[in-house]
Amino acid sequence: MARLTTAGGAAPIRISVAPSFAGKWLVPRSAALRRRAPDLEVLLDASVKLVDPASDETDCVIRYGLGAYPGLVVDKLFSEAVLPVCSPALAEQHGLYRGPEALLGVPLLHEDGAERDLSCPDWPTWLRTHGVDLRVGRTRMRFNQSSLVLDAALAGQGVGSGKLRLIEADLAAGRSVSPFGTPRPVEFSYFFAAPPHKARLAHVALFHDWLLAEAAATRTANLTLRAPHLAAVSIPAVAAE
């Protein structure tokens, strides 16, 4: 458990969330939460373990799934999409702006494990869909968390199939690029969920309201993918519904 803020005797809020979403989306926004609620103490449990929200271990959860959580107060945050991502240097080195056929000999970064959305196309499926020789996928690395795929891509270790909501800050800043393709929507989305009696608690309601406001800002923002040899491509926000 990591303490993100300190509080003067107020009850802390205990949040269970997957490590990748915590590290790539939630924690980078913690300063905004502190400004909104300076006395709120946050205990963040970043784990792939599915905690029962009705237990005493947690007050609320942020989950990546289909939204079927009976008996809980559930709010959809936003949908997700995936797209090829890599470092600008790797894209230049291998001429990836020419298209997916340039992937020959480039390591492909795969996601396995509990965070993987089965509706996300794996690399063999993606390559077949785009008519690319499957031999380009023979050099590969596998990771059990989405964030590790993205970190490896940022470090120039290969091309990953990245979740847009987790990589959008790096794309917008030019630390990562998507050299070809467009975001492909997947079935899973991100949800806030809490038992009704906990959702009514003042500190949980405060976090809930802040989270929905941040999610709304994420949904309405357009993302521009910058490529040195191409005009800027405006990617519409992934739909909330």
CATH architecture of the largest domain: 3-Layer(aba) Sandwich
Main sheet attributes: strand count, strand direction, barrel closure? 9 strands, mixed
CATH C-level class of the largest domain = Alpha Beta
Query: Judging from the principal axes of the Cα atoms, what is the shape?
Result: elongated
* Helical amount: 25-40%
Tally of DSSP β-strands: 11
Structural domain count: 2
CATH superfamily of the largest domain: Periplasmic binding protein-like II
Polypeptide structure, described:
- The protein is an alpha/beta fold and 241 residues long.
- The protein folds into two domains: 2-78 and 187-220, 3-Layer(aba) Sandwich (D-Maltodextrin-Binding Protein, domain 2), CATH 3.40.190; 80-186, D-Maltodextrin-Binding Protein, domain 2 (3-Layer(aba) Sandwich), CATH 3.40.190.
- It is 29% helix and 25% strand.
- The protein is built from eight helices and eleven strands.
- The strands form two sheets. Strands 1-3-2-4-9-5-8-6-7 form a nine-stranded mixed β-sheet, with helices on both faces.
- Helix 4 (123-129) links the parallel strand 6 and strand 7.
- The chain is elongated, with a radius of gyration of 19 Å.
- The model is unreliable at 1-9 and 226-241 (pLDDT under 50).
